[in-house]
Amino acid sequence: MEKEKKEKLLALFRSKLDRPMRYYLDVCTRCGICRDACFAYASSPKAEYTPVWRAEVVRKIYKRNFKWIGKLFPFLGKSKEIDDDTMRQLYDAAYTCTGCRRCMMVCPFGIDTQAIQSIAKLLLIGNESAPEELSMLADASIEKGKNIDLYKASFVQGIKNLEKEVISKWKGESDQVIPLDVEGANILYVALAGAHSIIPTASILNAARENWTLSFFEAVNFGAFVGDPIKTQMIAKRIINEAIRLKVKEVTICECGTAYRVMKHLVGEQPFKVSHIAEVMARYLGEGRIRVERDRIKGLITYHDPCQSARNSGVIEEPRYVLHQLTSNFAEMTPNREYNICCGGGGGLVALENEPFREETGKAKVNQIRDTGATIVATGCENCHTQLKFLNDRYKTEVKVEFLTNLVANSLVLE
Amino acid sequence: MSDEIKVIKTMDLKGLPCPQPVIKVSKGIKEIEVGQVLEAVTTDPGALSDFPAWARTSGNEILKTDQEPGLIRFLIKRMK
Q1: A164–B69: do the CB atoms touch at under 8 Å?
Q2: A-chain residues near B59 (CB < 8 A)
Q3: Are residues A380 and A255 in the same domain?
């Protein structure tokens, strides 16, 4: 590797070395408790599928270049120089980790593997070997933020085409079925590109007679998936600027775990409240603003906690409250809540396809679902939904995968 | 729609979840020659802004967009 490139990569590495990061890199005793917490190792017990193995790839570089013992005596202990081989190892470490942080829950020292992998991702960006798909998607999102006027007219037309389906679920009348650009709205709802992310929620918001408006931007943050802190902020800023321009009171994020976590916890304080759509639905049900017919949905339902919105952001009880209004036939997975097992689709992995890895490492989740006896698994995250459907197809679990919003919209009791 | 413009490849992206439509198109465009045209069919309303934004950042050109309820067709020319 050329000296200039190596120095550039080391500068990127150094930029990540704040006090918590040094703690995470220094304190590991290699006890291996994290091993069984990882969805990948739990499904396929290979050393390279453990959080400690993945972290060691980064630690070896750290030792060689940032610790005196690694600099002076590289032949002692385990340290490694940055070279092309290391970059390949970093790619494998970073993109076999979903960043679910279940390992952090069990680590006696609270080591944040996702934070360590953020170093790996940043180095890959510096080396121009980050996944092209994720970078491309992040750039397209940023482009929309810079030049939204170029894309507005066609977006508006596309939204108009969805209104009939919203009305069929909501059965209401209004000039604004899917309102856009409403200044002073209570809620700015940020969806994904798919109709499934817009139609059910629009029906629910309208049934609750909410003063809301749909964002022009998609919630998903590919900058976060590719580990680019600047692009992460730029993508989030589009939504923040829109919310400020429209003077909304609340920004509600759709069923997208990482998008919610970024907006709630990683962009600093904002002049509006940030909520997950599950929280909003729970609020509406609790206040009687919407009503659902219990047990209209037939079958035993279980719930998969999306790692980013549940364990990493605290949206845990609200989906359960919603589900208990929807059904008397609910079974928890074991374990559940903040200890639930990652499905293996997050962190950009679903976008990278990589189906053999996703199938191999989804076994633990499949077993969890099978053990409940459920015929429906509900979840509140796009990546989880895609991954769970994929696992259903591959493992023939014969379980229907449903978004929470879709279950609620299909159970609405309308006057 | 395809009478005036010769389509060399058609991609059926109906029902694919985000972000699969854009990813598949970004891969599919590399399988045709520069100057050739790809047709992409999707059910994703967000594609109406996603695809043009992708085209602008990737240097490709959207020649035509047709909409009907539930279906959107793009003709995309590979430019480089």
Answers
A1: yes
A2: none
A3: no
Residue B4 placed within a domain? no
Q: 10-residue block means of pLDDT along chain A (415 residues)?
A: 93 97 96 96 96 96 92 81 94 96 97 97 97 93 92 88 88 87 98 92 96 96 96 97 98 97 96 98 98 97 98 98 98 98 93 92 97 98 96 96 97 90
Same domain (yes/no): A373, A404 = yes
Facing residue for B26 by CB, picked from A133, A151, A382:
A133
Q: Which of A341, A304, A309, A303 is nearest to A323 (CA)?
A: A303
**pLDDT tens string A9-66:** 999 999 999 999 999 999 999 999 999 999 999 999 999 999 999 999 999 999 999 9
Q: pTM of the predicted model, to two decimals? A: 0.94
Last residue of some domain: A287, A314, A338? Answer: A287
Containing structural domain, residue B22:
9-77
| Stretch 67-86 of chain A: residues touching chain B, C-beta under 8 Å | none
The verdict on A147 touching B (C-beta cutoff 8 Å) is yes
User: CB–CB of B57 and A140 under 8 A?
Assistant: yes
Which of the four pLDDT bands, split at 50, 70 and 90, describes residue B15? confident
- Provide the annotated active-site residues of B: 18
Question: Across the interface, do A136 and B58 touch by the CB < 8 Å criterion?
Answer: yes
Q: How many C-beta neighbours within 10 Å does residue A116 have?
A: 25
- Tell whether A334 is covered by a domain: yes
Q: Which residues of A touch B46 (CB under 8 A)?
A: 155, 158, 191-194, 218
In a domain, B3, yes or no: no
Q: Does residue A363 lie in a domain region?
A: yes
Q: Does A236 share its domain with A367?
A: no
Contact B22 A140 (CB under 8 A): yes
* Helical residues (DSSP H) of B8-78, grouped into ranges: 20-28, 47-58
Interface size A-B, in CB pairs within 8 Å, comes to 95
Q: What is the pLDDT of residues A193-250, one digit of tens each?
A: 888 999 999 999 999 999 999 999 999 999 999 999 999 999 999 999 999 999 999 9
Cα–Cα dist A237/A235, whole Å: 5
Long-range contacts of A149-155 (CB under 8 A, 24+ apart): A150/B52, A150/B56, A151/A216, A151/B48, A151/B49, A151/B52, A151/B53, A152/A216, A152/B49, A154/B48, A154/B49, A154/B52, A154/B65, A155/A216, A155/B45, A155/B46, A155/B48, A155/B49
CB contact under 8 A, B69 and A198: no
Q: Does A382 touch chain B if contact means CB atoms closer than 8 Å?
A: yes
Please check whether residue A390 touches B, CB under 8 A.
Answer: no
Q: Decide if A65 is inside a domain.
A: yes
